[in-house]
Amino acid sequence: MAGQQDPPPRQELIGRGRTADVYALDDRWVLRRYREGLDARGEGDVMAYVRAHGFPAPQVRADGGLAPGELVLERLTGPTQLDAVMRGELEAADAGRELAELLRRLHAVPARPGGRVLHLDLHPDNVIRTPNGPVVIDWANAEVGEPGLDWAMSALILAEVAVDPGRVEARVAREALVALLAAPHPRLAGPFLAEARVRRAGNPTLGADEKRRLGVAVELVRVLEGGP
């Protein structure tokens, strides 16, 4: 298939997401490779920028000879925030508060031309709880813009899980969402939430059932935020 590459020789596959595979290079570094030939160079630049300003993102190693869809990243140890909640190691409400604090810290990073740095996919499966604190991964969707959109995307992603009767994580997603929205944040109901819905509806990794529930998820965010 066009865009696919052979796996790196003699490397252990340690992670597989919806769009990328992660291979262990050694005990300190991993190679992340997009399967469909997406360009990761902008993502690496964003991670390096926010990390330089004190935000917890993985360290990016500048290696020569990498394909455009490859990044060499710091190898992180620890469960995802979602795994920690499901194991009973972290309360769902604490996860929501942690997400809110990460959003606050990210939007305090000095602005780039066009606005503040936005992650746009910050949810419990994209936070690794390392011994040194939470680290945010998967910056593929990062852009610059208005922080309210970032909050709306995180809230809507949690709400999508909360309204899915087939997800065992539904209850904890709702609890995390309540805690997230209890933190000081820009008003989401209106343009930010509407834009988040459009973006989620256009996400090719969402299934048809997930997209059909978007309206219910949007309404849940509105209700929990105290909107009309």
Explain what this protein looks like in three dimensions.
The chain has eight helices and nine strands. It is an alpha+beta fold and 228 residues long. The chain folds into two domains: 12-74, 2-Layer Sandwich (Phosphorylase Kinase, domain 1), CATH 3.30.200; 81-225, no CATH class. A hairpin with a 3-residue loop joins strand 1 (12-16) and strand 2. The protein starts with 11 loop residues before the first strand and ends with a helix.
Judged by helices, strands and strand pairing, the structural class is alpha+beta
What's the main sheet like? 5 strands, antiparallel
**Using only CA atoms, what is the Rg?**
17 Å
Counting DSSP H or I runs of 4 or more residues, the number of helices is 8
Question: Count of DSSP E strands?
Answer: 9
- Give the helix level as a range of percent: 25-40%
How big a fraction of the residues is strand? 15-25%
Ranges where pLDDT stays below 50 over 5 or more residues in a row are none
Biggest sheet: strand arrangement: 1-2-3-5-4
